[in-house]
Amino acid sequence: MLRVGIPRALSYYQYYPGWKAFFEALGAEMVVSPPTNKAIFTAGNSRAVAETCLPVKLFFGHVISLADKCDYTFIPVLRSLGKKAYYCSKFIGLPDMTRALVPECPPVLDPEIDLNKGRRSLYRIIYDLGRHFSSDESKIKKAVEQAEKAHLAYRKEMSDRKITPIQALDEMHKDEGKSYLEPDISPSLSVAVIGHQYVIYDDYINHRLISRLQAMGVRVLTPEMAEQKALDIAMTKLRGAPHWSFEADIIGAGEYYLGEKVDGIISVAVFGCGPDSMMIDMVRHRASEFRIPFLHLSLDEHTSEGGLVTRLEAFLDMIKRKRRVCA
Amino acid sequence: MRVGIPHCGNAYIIAEALVQKLGNGENELIVPPPTSHRTLDLGVKYSPVEACLPFKLTLGNLIEACELGADTLIHARGTGVCRLGYYVKEQEQIIRDLGYDAHFLTLDVSQHKFRSIIRLMKDLTNDAPWPKIISALRFAMGKLFALDKIEKVVHKVRAVELEKGRANQIYREAVKAIGEAKTVGEVKSASKEYIKKLNHVPKDPTADPVKVGIVGEVYVVLDPFANMDIEMELGKLGVEVERTMSLSRWVKYSLFLNYLGIDEWKEVHEAAMPYLKRDVGGDGWESVGEKVVYAREGYDGLVHLAPFTCMPEIVAQNIMPSTKEDIPVLTVLYDEQMARPGMITRLEAFVDLLMFRRKRRGT
Predict the structure, then answer these.
(1) Complex ipTM
(2) Which of A88, A101, A275 shows the shortest C-beta gap to B318?
(3) Fewer CB under 10 Å: which end of chain A, C or N?
(4) In this structure, which CATH number among 1.10.238.10, 3.40.50.150, 3.40.50.10490, 3.40.50.11900 belongs to the domain A183-326?
């Protein structure tokens, strides 16, 4: 059986269930790299140019950890997943950067997904991808259908049950039987955490931000806990057609949760993120118009746990004080 | 309308020439003062902290134009993966927050370039007749071509002149003379005159200058304030620089040749193929391809310029070291914290390295 390696980084958090359904329907075995650890962090950091953003460095670390465990590495090129809305350059350069920086990496499968090129081109690209595993066209078609179903179910599961991708994926990995604890809705404060999935759900780089907030008695809301449609509407109303494919997850989520009157917003971005440098400012602007407290955390390789905790505590204290004063 | 524009190298000369020929009617062109430290300070003060340098500098230019009374601002816009596509959205908001009542006209620099240029010109001239627009364009482009042609000569002369600084002085005079020229004929004769002057600058006959290619993100490559006159500084160190990218080349291809199916970067993209298979936005693909081309042509080294945190250029920077065609690359990243002496020290070390390599290869 052919083994397909999937780095647990970047778009993994958004699309893994769909990919898994696709490859498994074609009879391939999935190998996912372990959650980010120190070895992955160090390996990735040592290969990439210093200016590269942390999540992309980690991506290379994950690829390195998979190098001798799979026959193919799956690195899709996400160019555009929406009309004239694009991904960041680094997502598009990923396979080529991987070949340059991780020469020991097994052959890379790099289908280029660009929805602006129309359906036909998309079909051809997916068919070409599927042909590595099966020459039966109807089997590939069925795999695509299953992938789509799995992806939509995954997205719905998160917004219906208000769980994070990590929880949803954990459940999937653990098969049947064990269900995740329903979120505790007793906490008095609700805080929206806004950012790219690969930042807010990678516990290694954000120092367990979400569970830390939950332990501090906060109900955490993330972009995935809202319906995709609601995010799209919130974003379009504010900013018109998006320029980035993930604009709805940042600006849309910010706007949506501001409208839901959360107690505070925490935006999390990595240092040097191009799209975020522009988008976060917009959320900040809107938060000040809504008079809702806003905290921006910029993370990099050197972010210390202590500093982060202090800032979170101060932020929550401020929210609580504001409540007291306003009450 | 009082129209303000941002700076990028000599681009303002085209705008001035167009206005001069088309007459401005009710429109007035406001060229903000040359980019200065004040421009940078303004840009830095009002931009998001992590925005890239071109964003900050052009924002500073536009604020300075607003201070002079501009109510319409022109800016480039790209529909691609780079941040440029977001500039206008963000800058519009910032300028409005500062209390200026100005709206933006955009010039699309990635797709539909021709249509976008023509539409912009029609907007600005209240629908001037076609022949008039075409003759104005010809005049403006004449200036641009003349300037870029002179610049190419300057790059060569700087490296070998006996009295350092002479070529720069002539270049400055040439920019002034061409800026002031009133007819196509005057532009041509000025261009000829200054090229002759440059050719007569006393040169070191024994000099065999190190040759370096310049690649990178278009704004920092073309704007001398943004790149801290890197070409001049290299010239002072006795280096002959070559760069493919120029404003005149861009205009020439976007207005005509692209529509005949001629792609100016075809050869460069093909050279990049084994290492980078696709466009990553901005100028990243071209940077990788040009490295390969320059290496094949026997250049001694490459200077790669980019704004700090520039996404496409980071991709290029990650890929460049692994190309089989191997020449030394110095990547210089620009932001508002950067100081000129630091850059010069790095250039000196780089040039030393190139000379050493040459000597070793010679023996």
Answers:
(1) 0.91
(2) A101
(3) C
(4) 3.40.50.11900
